[in-house]
Write a structure and sequence with these properties.
- The chain is mostly loops and about 80 residues long.
- The chain has one domain.
- Helices cover about 10% and strands about 10% of the residues.
- The strands form two sheets. Strands 1-2 form a two-stranded antiparallel sheet. Strands 3-4 form a two-stranded antiparallel ribbon.
- The longest helix is centred in the middle third of the chain and has 10 residues.
- It is globular and about 55 Å long.
- The structure holds zinc ion.
- Zinc ion binds next to loops.
- The site of zinc ion has 9 residues, from loops.
């Protein structure tokens, strides 16, 4: 029997880089498992603490916490990896 399955992967909402570009794995069958792996790699994944960034995913190169512990995105990286 041949049937279709769904896999998940991630892309940075800021610079648009694909997670799989730097990883031996390109997709996961379990979304929560994927989020855990992204967090282990210092990706920022839909943190409910900051409504502005809810449901967003940012790669490890795009963000840091500022002096007040708020998420700060590096403006110069915006759409750096966007393909047109
Ligand atoms: Zn990024």
């Amino acid at each position: 029997m041949i049937y279709e399955v769904t896999y998940y992967t991630a892309k940075c909402d800021h610079c648009k880089v694909e997670y799989a570009e730097d990883s031996p794995y390109s997709a996961w069958s379990d979304k929560d498992n994927m989020k855990d792996i992204l967090r282990d790699c210092d990706w920022y994944v839909d943190n409910d603490d900051e409504p502005k960034h809810k449901d967003k995913t940012y790669c490890s190169d795009c963000w840091s916490y500022d002096d007040n512990d708020y998420l700060e995105l590096y403006a110069e990286r915006l759409n750096k990896h966007q393909e047109d």
